């Protein structure tokens, strides 16, 4: 889905994902980065272009390139957006391993959730994580998202096996506390 949303703060800038980002994304996508995704790991720029084209063609998905210091260091999305019902998910997220454990992920999530709750007025932001992806589970939990449950056999992994999905969410009345914790983290660790 094409959109014109740009979000900026705390040392990151989220811009609409475009084919021009494929070269930079292809420079760091590998098995570690792609762990937990349902599609096979992209192998080169042509595969990453297909990933970008698929993201742009998906209804109710707002895909972003993540820029830090002017360099494309990842991608993230709003998806399954249903503003009439006041809900959406944040995901399809992957970053250059050089920025793992830095301010980048919490800054992106702060920007996205601020837009979701503040601009769109949603009641619920959800995160779906492949049940074996410990790194992503830890990151979502650290955001303050509450565990909701396991959907057994919910997804088909790239290797064809059935995998479970874990759901987490933050509700509108939980957002002020989660936002405060994210802002504290960023004040202690990241650029402003």
From TrEMBL:
Pfam families: Acetyltransf_3 (PF13302). Residues 12-173 form the N-acetyltransferase domain. PROSITE patterns: GNAT. Gene3D superfamilies: 3.40.630.30. It comes from the Bacteria. GO terms for molecular function: acyltransferase activity, transferring groups other than amino-acyl groups. Keywords: Transferase. PANTHER family: BLL6696 PROTEIN, N-ACETYLTRANSFERASE DOMAIN-CONTAINING PROTEIN. This is Acetyltransferase, GNAT family. It comes from Cellulomonas flavigena (strain ATCC 482 / DSM 20109 / BCRC 11376 / JCM 18109 / NBRC 3775 / NCIMB 8073 / NRS 134).
């Amino acid at each position: 889905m094409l959109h014109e949303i740009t979000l900026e703060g705390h040392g990151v800038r989220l811009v609409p994902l475009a084919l021009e980002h494929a070269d930079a994304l292809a420079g760091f996508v590998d098995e570690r980065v792609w762990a937990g995704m349902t599609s096979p790991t992209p192998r080169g720029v042509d595969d990453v272009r297909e990933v970008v084209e698929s993201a742009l063609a998906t209804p109710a998905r707002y895909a972003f390139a993540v820029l830090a210091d002017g360099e494309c260091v990842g991608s993230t999305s709003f998806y399954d957006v249903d503003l009439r019902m006041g809900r959406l998910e944040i995901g399809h997220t992957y970053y250059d391993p050089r920025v793992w454990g830095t301010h980048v992920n919490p800054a992106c999530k702060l920007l996205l959730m601020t837009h979701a709750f503040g601009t769109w007025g949603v009641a619920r932001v959800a995160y779906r994580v492949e049940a074996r992806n410990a790194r992503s589970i830890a990151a979502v939990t650290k955001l303050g998202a509450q565990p909701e449950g396991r959907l057994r056999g919910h997804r088909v992994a790239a290797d064809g096996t059935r995998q479970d999905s874990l759901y987490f969410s933050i509700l509108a009345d939980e957002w002020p506390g989660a936002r405060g914790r994210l802002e504290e983290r960023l004040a202690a660790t990241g650029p402003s």
